[in-house]
Amino acid sequence: FVGAGGGNDIQWCFSQVKGAVDDDVAEADIISTVEFNHSGELLATGDKGGRVVIFQQEQENKTQSHSRGEYNVYSTFQSHEPEFDYLKSLEIEEKINKIRWLPQKNAAQFLLSTNDKTIKLWKISERDKRPEGYNLKEEDGRYRDPTTVTTLRVPVFRPMDLMVEASPRRIFANAHTYHINSISINSDYETYLSADDLRINLWHLEITDRSFNIVDIKPANMEELTEVITAAEFHPNSCSTFVYSSSKGTIRLCDMRASALCDRHSKLFEEPEDPSNRSFFSEIISSISDVKFSHSGRYMMTRDYLSVKIWDLNMENRPVETYQVHEYLRSKLCSLYENDCIFDKFECCWNGSDIVMTGSYNNFFRMFDRNSKRDVTLEASRENNKPRTVLKPRKVCASGKRKKDEISVDSLDFNKKILHTAWHPKENIIAVATTNNLYIFQDKMN
Amino acid sequence: MFVRGLKRKCFDGEEDIEGTLAGIKAIPSYNLQRQSLLDMSLVKLQLCHMLVEPNLCRSVLIANTVRQIQEEMTQDGTWQMINTQSTGQASLDRLVSTDILCRSSRDQAEGKHVPAYGTFNKDFESDQAQDSSETMSTAPSVQAPRNLQSNVWEMDNPQENKGNFQKSLDQIFETLENKSPNSVEDLFSEVDNSYYDLDTMLTGMMSNTKMGHCDSLETFSSPTNTASNSNCKSDLNDLDHIVEILVES
C-alpha cells in the first residue's frame, strides 16, 4: 500500500485493460463475473450477453524481467443463449452470473458457468496437431475412389496453428425455480452446489438428470417470505461443510452429514444490530451480497452494502474484523434507495488470508490489509493506462472542506460501479471489472 | 441523481438539526418523510410486480421496508393518512395515490367501498409538533418491541385499508408463485385495472412532490433542485410500453 511505511506495502501498477474504449456501453458487453483458474494462468470473464472470454497469461518473458506475463485472449465462446419460459411467459436472461474453474486434471481445462436457471460444464481444449496422409480421404475431406489407391501409407500428425475449442460437456438444467446466484465446487472435485433465492442443490459433475436439494427456505405460504439466500460456498477443505448468506445479514454454516436436508444450521453467524445506526434502510444494507472463505478455511468474509466483515468460523456472535468500504454513503441511503443503487451486489475476494479486496462506486476499489490494518482506495480508469504506472491512492471527502485531489461524495459517479474483482491465486496480480472493461493490475517489481 | 459535476449544498453535521428551530419550517416532518419513503417503496413494488422477471431479493427487501414503516405507523397511531397543512393539492394527490396502491384490484372489481383516507386523527395533531423535531435516523417508536409482522396482521383493526395493503403485498408474492398458463393474463389484468391510476399517480408524484424530499430524509437540508430521477422516467417508459402492448392486443 502506497504511503509511509514498510517495504511490504504493495504498489499497484497498471498492466492491461480489455474491452471497448468508447463510453457508449453495449448492454451485452457488461461484465458480470471474473474468475482466475487455480494456477492463475487463465482468467475468465462472463458478460450479460452470455459470452465467456478466457485470457491466458503469456509465459514469462526472459528479457522483460520487470513484469509478469500479459494476459491475451485465449478463447471466446457463447455459453448461454436467451431462453423463453413458455409456462410462465418469462424471458430467461443469458447473463452469466458465475464462473467457477475446476482444478486441472489433464490437458484440458474445465469450468462451470451459470445463468439464472442452467449450469453448464465447459471443456476447453487445445488442438495443435492434425492427422494427415489418409489413404481413402483427400486432404480436403473428399473420399478417394478406392480403385485409384496404389500404395498405402500411415497417417501422421502434423503441427497446425493452435486452435482452442470450447465444448459443453454437461448441461445441468431444470433444477431451479428461482434465480441462481452462486455455484461452488466441492473440495472433493466431484460434486458442486448451486444456490438460488430459496434453495440450494447438490450436483454430481457426471450426473445431469438429478440433483439433491440440501437447503430449502421457501415458506409454505409465499406471503410469509421475508428472507432469501444471497450467496453460498463450500468450505475449501471440508467437503461436507458449506455456508450460505441471507438478505437479513446472517450466515449459516451447514454440515451435510447431519441430515439430508440441511434446514437446520450447525452454526449461525450474526452480528447484533447497532441501535444507534438504525434506520428504515438497516435491513437492506445488512443484506449480504457475497461470502468467501479464506484459502485456509479458518475465516470467511462477507460483503454487505457498506462494509466487509471477517468472521472466524469458531465465533458466531460477531465478526472478528469489520472494514468500512464507503461509510460516507450512510447519509445518502435514501437517495441510493431511490435510484436502486442500494441493491447493488458487490463481490469481494481474498489474497490468501491477509488482504481483502472489494469494489465501490466511481470505479474505485478498496483493499484492506488485515495485518497492518491499513487500507487503500484505488481507481480503475483509462487515465492511468500507461504500463507500469503506479496507481495513486484516491480519497473521498465525506464532508467539510475538500482537499486538493480529493473527490466529494456528491461528485461520485454511481453508474461506474466495480462489482466484480479477482485476485490471482499465487501472485500479486488483480483483475478488476468496471462496467464493460477488465483492468489488470500488478504489483511493482523491483 | 448524482450527475457528475453537479454541485449540491453540503450539509454540515447533525448538530444543526436539533439546533435551529427556525429552520424547522423548511424541514419536512418526520412523518412526511416516512410517508414519502412508503410511497416510493410501494411504487417500486408495483413496478417490479409488472416487470417480466422480478428480482426476488430486491422485492423482499422493499416489502420488508414497507412492513417496517407500516408497523411503526401503526404503533404511532398514524396509519391513517396524514392530512398535511402545507400544499393541499400535493397532499390530496398523495392521499389518492397511496389509497389506490393499497387497494387490491379485486376490491376495485367488486366495487367495494374503501374508506376514504382523509380521516384525520386528532391524536396525531398533537403528535406532529413533537415529531417534526425528531430525526429520521432515530426510530421513535422503538419502545414497542419490533415483533414479527404476524403481530401486526393479527391486530384487530377495522380499517380496510390495512387489509388491502396486505393483499397488495400478497399478490406480489403470489404472482411469483403462479405457474398456471393463465398467469400472463392475471399479471396483465392487474396492471390493467390499476394502470390509469398508477400513471396518474406517477405524473402527480413527478410534478407535485419534490424529489428533494428524499434528500431531506438524510440530510435535512432544504430541498434543492435535484437532477431528474431517471429511474422513475424509465419506469414510465416501461409503463408506456406495456400500455402499447395492451392497446394493440
From TrEMBL, chain A:
What InterPro entries does the record tag this protein with? PP2A_PR55, PP2A_PR55_CS, WD40/YVTN_repeat-like_dom_sf, WD40_repeat_dom_sf, WD40_rpt
Q: Which GO terms describe its cellular component?
A: protein phosphatase type 2A complex
- What domain of life is recorded for the organism? Eukaryota
Has the keyword Repeat been applied to this entry? yes
GO molecular function term, any single one: protein phosphatase regulator activity
Q: Which PROSITE patterns match?
A: PR55_1 (PS01024), PR55_2 (PS01025)
Provide the coiled-coil residue spans.
Answer: none
Query: Which UniProt keywords are listed?
Result: Repeat, WD repeat
Q: Write out the similarity annotation.
A: Belongs to the phosphatase 2A regulatory subunit B family.
User: What protein name applies here?
Assistant: Serine/threonine-protein phosphatase 2A 55 kDa regulatory subunit B
**Organism this protein belongs to:** Tychaedon coryphoeus (Karoo scrub-robin)
Automatic annotation (TrEMBL), chain B:
What this protein is called in its record is CDCA4 protein
Annotated GO CC locations: nucleus
Q: Which InterPro entries match?
A: E2F-SERTA_domain_protein, SERTA_dom
Coiled-coil residues: none
Chain ranges of the SERTA domain: 30-77
Pfam families xrefs: SERTA
